[in-house]
Structure formats: structure tokens, C-alpha cells
Write a structure and sequence with these properties.
single chain, 399 residues, seven-stranded mixed beta sheet, 16 helices, globular, disordered C terminus
């Protein structure tokens, strides 16, 4: 047997394979609703004005010199203030350990590695469904995953009681991954009172909450409001972990900017945790790039740029909401007896349609419309293509 002869083709990733299939489709009418990135009316990526201005403020020297520890700890400090609140005790008392990460994915992966290292027999409970890569990240870090009930396909909403039961019935001191806002793929989030109850039961069971916050600002258009779940847990005195990403909220997809942080008991524990996180990073890729973190810190520390960012986030979210309203109205005009209310109740970048895998295949084959196999559609504007959905949907609607 020759070297590598035993290497077989890896299974396709359920999200990136949608784009691959889309690219190989020759139809001029094809439409990609699979990719999880915000786009303008022409389907092009958006560069935020606050990012353009921040880029102008950063000098070449800063980028070249900034392997400096101070740039990184400043960035981490800025990130945790954004997630935990400017006036959070955790920040004031230095009770957090954090490192820059290769965006949200890298932040999750670092936490999974850390979990494996210090709780080798632990499991990670993931919501059902969740972003498909969560399963792969914890699997590759050799942490077993289990699921807890979250979304109810019948009501197209949260299965709150089942979720509470699963949290209650999990062994005490379990790790749980929570989406603090704009749950991917369902767009269904617990409300304030429900988060309070979840936090309460976590306290009773002494579970460890790990928040994967890939969409801060993208649920409500308000960065503070979207951090409510984390703030509730902090108020209740939990120790917690948090992955942050600036892919969506600042449009920095290609820069891979993120942060992983862990709230600790005291400063001494934070120092120890940070040193271990740094050691994991060191052996994996030594250190992360600095241009992205510099962009983020520049925006967060300049009052005008920060205000501009907040406005731009709000603009994106208002536009997503308008597109949801249009989609719902378009479907309602088909006079179906089905309810489409869930389209405007869900939040964030995705509409979780409830289409079956067969229906997703049919849309792809007959109408060149691409989405993930679970029926997740990225909300986007494209009037003429709504025409082809119109042709397709009467059949669906009358089911
Ligand atoms: N977490 C969730 C829930 C996501 O939906 C995503 C992206 O789709 C990520 C993490 C990772 O995003 P990125 O690595 O681009 O920051």
C-alpha cells in the first residue's frame, strides 16, 4: 500500500457543499440561499463604513508590530466589555480569561480543547438542532456530544418545557452550549423570563454554560439587548464561557476575528486559565492575526465609530426584518390556509422554513434554488426569484 492510499474522500460539509453545488449549476436563474453571510441587494458582500474608516486609522507599522501582548489583551478586554457589559463586575475585578481566536469557529474550538484538557470525561450538550459545525468541533476535540430539545417543528417555536426537562435531567455539572441570540439555524430564542428560568435551573444543577455568540446585534439590532441572556447569567453569579465572532456583526468574515473568554472565580484563577488557553494556541498556530482585532478595537474605542457601527448593525437588521415581512406577505397572498407568522417571529439572518429534505432537493433540481438540507434559508432580497418561489409554493402551501 502506498502512502495515503487509505485516505478516502471526506463526507461533504452540509453548509459549504451547498455553495459547491450552486457554483456547478449552469442555470442563469440559480439562487443561493445557503450561505450564512449578509449580502446587499445585488447579492454582494457588504463592507461596513465603520470598518473602512477604522482601516484608514490603522497604520502599517501597527499591523506589523502588533504581535504585542498589549494589543491582544486590549482586544480581549474590548470583547468582554461588549459581551458582559461595560460596567460588569467581571470586567472591573479582572475575573475573566480570554484570548483572541480565529473567529467564532476558532473560539468554539479553543474552548472544546480546553474542556477536553481539564474535564476529559465531560460531554457537551448541544441544542437540537444547532449549527452543524458544533458537532464537528466537539467531535474533533474528542469531547462526546449529546443533544437537548430546543425547537418544536410543529409550533415552529421553542419547546421550552422539553428544554427545561432536558436541562433538569442531565447529570449535574454538565457542559451546555447555548446560543444567546439569533439561534442558528432556527431563529428562535428564549424570551427574558425563559432565560431567567434557564439560568435558575443551571444554578440548581451546577451546569456550566458556554455561550456561542456569533450574532450579537443581529437579532434585535441592539448590541446590548442581544447580550441579555449572558447578562442574566452573570447577574445570577454563574461562571461561564463565551465565544464571540465579528464575522456577521462587522462583516469581517474573511478576517476571522473572534474571542474566547471564560469568567472565573477570581483574578488568580483567571491568570491560570489564560495561561492554559495561550498554551493551546501556541501549539496550534502560535498566535492569531492582528489586523482584524485592531479594526475591532479601533471601532469599539472611538465613540463616533462605535455609534456608526451601532447604526449600521441596526440598518442591517431592519432590512432583514423588512425582507421577512415581504416574504410572509408574498406567501400569504397565495391564499393558503397555512400560517406564515413564524417567518416574522424568527430573528436573525435565517428563515427556518420547515421544508423537508425532499422539498429542498426538488427546489434545487427544478428551480435552481439552493439552501441547506434542513430547509434553512438565508433571508435575502431578490424580487424576480420570489417569482419562481411563487410558482413552487402553491404546491407546498396546499399540502
Ligand atoms: N457559531 C454559530 C452559531 C454560527 O452560526 C457561526 C457561523 O455561521 C459560527 C459560530 C462561526 O462563525 P465564524 O467562524 O465565521 O465567526
Amino acid at each position: 500500500m502506498g502512502w495515503w492510499d487509505h485516505v478516502l474522500l471526506a463526507p461533504k460539509d452540509p453548509i459549504t457543499s451547498v455553495t459547491e453545488a450552486f457554483l456547478s449549476d449552469q442555470s442563469p436563474f440559480k439562487l443561493n440561499l445557503g450561505v450564512g453571510a449578509y449580502r446587499d441587494d445585488k447579492g454582494k458582500p457588504v463592507i461596513l463604513e465603520c470598518v473602512r474608516r477604522a482601516a484608514e486609522k490603522i497604520s502599517c507599522c501597527e499591523i506589523l508590530e502588533s504581535t504585542k501582548a498589549t494589543t491582544k489583551s486590549k482586544f480581549v478586554q474590548d470583547c468582554v466589555k461588549l459581551a458582559y457589559g461595560n460596567h460588569s463586575n467581571v470586567v472591573g475585578e479582572g475575573r475573566f480569561a480570554g484570548v483572541p481566536a480565529l473567529s467564532g469557529t476558532g473560539a468554539c474550538r479553543l474552548f472544546a480543547e480546553f474542556q477536553k484538557r481539564f474535564y476529559p470525561d465531560s460531554q457537551m450538550f448541544l441544542p437540537m438542532p444547532t449549527w452543524s459545525n458544533h458537532h464537528d468541533i466537539w467531535r474533533d476535540s474528542q469531547v462526546c456530544t449529546r443533544t437537548y430539545r430546543y425547537y418544536d417543528p410543529n409550533s415552529k417555536g421553542l419547546q421550552f418545557q422539553a428544554l427545561m426537562n432536558d436541562i433538569k435531567n442531565a447529570p449535574g455539572r454538565s457542559f451546555f452550549l447555548l446560543h444567546p441570540c439569533a439561534h442558528n439555524p432556527t431563529g428562535v430564542d428564549p424570551n427574558y423570563e425563559q432565560w431567567k428560568e434557564i439560568s435558575h435551573i443551571f444554578k440548581i444543577k451546577n451546569h456550566f454554560p458556554f455561550f456561542d455568540m456569533a450574532y450579537q446585534g443581529i437579532a434585535s439590532g441592539d448590541l446590548e439587548r442581544d447580550a441579555t441572556a449572558i447578562r442574566i447569567f452573570l447577574e445570577d453569579g454563574h461562571l461561564l464561557g463565551c465565544a464571540q465572532s465579528f464575522s456577521k456583526s462587522m462583516g469581517l468574515y474573511g478576517h476571522r476575528v473572534g474571542c474566547v473568554s471564560i469568567v472565573s472565580r477570581d483574578e488568580k484563577q483567571a491568570t491560570a486559565i489564560k495561561s492554559q488557553l495561550q498554551q493551546i494556541v501556541r501549539a496550534m498556530y502560535s498566535s492569531s492575526p492582528v489586523h482584524g482585532p485592531l479594526l475591532v478595537s479601533t471601532i469599539l474605542n472611538d465613540a463616533d465609530l462605535k455609534a456608526l457601527w451601532e447604526e449600521e448593525v441596526k440598518f442591517m437588521v431592519d432590512r432583514l426584518i423588512r425582507m421577512r415581512i415581504t416574504l410572509r406577505r408574498t406567501l400569504e397572498e397565495l391564499n393558503s390556509s397555512a400560517s406564515w407568522e413564524h417567518i416574522t417571529k424568527q430573528v436573525g439572518m435565517f428563515y427556518f422554513s420547515g421544508l423537508s429534505p425532499e422539498e429542498v432537493h426538488q427546489l434545487q433540481r427544478d428551480f435552481h434554488i439552493y439552501m441547506t438540507i434542513d430547509g434553512r434559508i438565508r433571508v435575502r432580497r431578490n424580487g424576480c426569484k420570489i417569482g419562481s418561489l411563487r410558482e413552487y409554493l402553491p404546491h407546498l402551501v396546499s399540502k
